[in-house]
Amino acid sequence: MAPRYNSPPNWPPPPAGWTPPPGWLPDPSWGPAPQGWQLWVEDPVGVSTDIPEPSSGIPESNLSSAGPVAGEPKAKSWFARHKILTGVGALVVLVAFIAALNGGGDEDPASSVAGPAATQNAQDAEEAAAAVASEEEAEAERLAEDEAEAAAAAEEDRLAEAQRLADEAIAAEATAAEAARIGTVAQQNAWQSAVSYLDYAAFSRSGLAGQLEFEGYSPADAEFAIARLETEGGVDWNAQAVASAASYLDYTSFSRAGLIDQLVYEGFTVEQAEHGASTAGL
Question: pLDDT per residue over 74-131, tens digit each?
Fold first, then answer.
């Protein structure tokens, strides 16, 4: 007698001559064998144990995935090891996929720490750059203020210098004008002599110039002294004509025409002589 595998009617028929290998387990999807079903039966010696070809077309791989048969040793067959290795490989692939989704779980611990450290370093660098930029901006503002103050001070100095130069120019102009007014020493002396002559006698313009030249002053100095008298209001030629006419009438008699001619002779203009004669009562 020899044991023969007896497949339940609700399981796929095995291939002809197939015997479950050690450790074989039926596919759970086949369902349980009927109650009391004998998976192993005894065949008489010499009786063929060939099993007809399966009519279902279930691949042998399904049979290899089934569980162990009752009463058989639980040693793992090639089919069982293949299935286990396949499951382990799928598990490894799944773990690797999940690690990839989580951002690289296969990285070493140093790389997992480097991420936060790099972020902190980047933040520190940004803060340092911001601090430097703030300091540079403050320094630029300080320099701008210093430049503005320096420019204002320079402008103030320029205006002060311009005012000083203007004042000096005005002073120089006034000095020059005063020098031109009083003239040289000789011209000042001629002017002083002219004032003295007019204090005790009446003179026409030309008569006073002749008197100064007689005293030794140059015609230019005599002209300067008379012009200064005229500019400063030191002489009135009509008044001089009146005084000269009165002087002539004090020691002699004149007709109007004779007095006018005498005054013209003295250097007065006709208008001045007529004014003198009229004022004297002629």
Answer: 444 434 444 544 454 445 445 455 555 555 445 555 555 567 888 888 889 999 999 9
Judge if 92 and 122 occupy the same domain: no
CB atoms within 10 A of CB 26: 22
Residues 205, 202: Cα–Cα separation, whole Å: 10
What domain range includes position 49?
2-98
CA distance 125 to 119: 10
Same domain assignment for residues 44 and 76: yes
Question: Does residue 60 sit in the same domain as residue 25?
Answer: yes
DSSP secondary-structure letter at 201? S
Distance in angstroms (rounded) separating the CA atoms of residues 275 and 239: 9
The reply to whether 8 and 53 lie within a common domain is yes
Cα(28)–Cα(25) distance, rounded to whole angstroms?
9
Contact call for residues 216 and 258 (beta carbons, < 8 A): no
- For the chain, the domain total comes to 3
Which of 43, 77, 98 is a domain's end point? 98
Residue with the two structure tokens 């005894």: 42
The amino acid at residue 138 is: A
| Residues 193 and 121 both lie in one domain | no
Using CA atoms, how far apart are residues 25 and 39, in angstroms rounded to an integer? 12
- Integer Cα distance of 166 and 73 in angstroms: 129
Q: With b meaning 16 or more CB within 10 Å and e meaning fewer, what string describes 251-269?
A: eeebeeeebbebbbebbbb
- Name the residue among 7, 57, 4 with its Cα closest to residue 31: 7
Domain identity same for 166 and 190: no
Three-state DSSP state, 193: helix
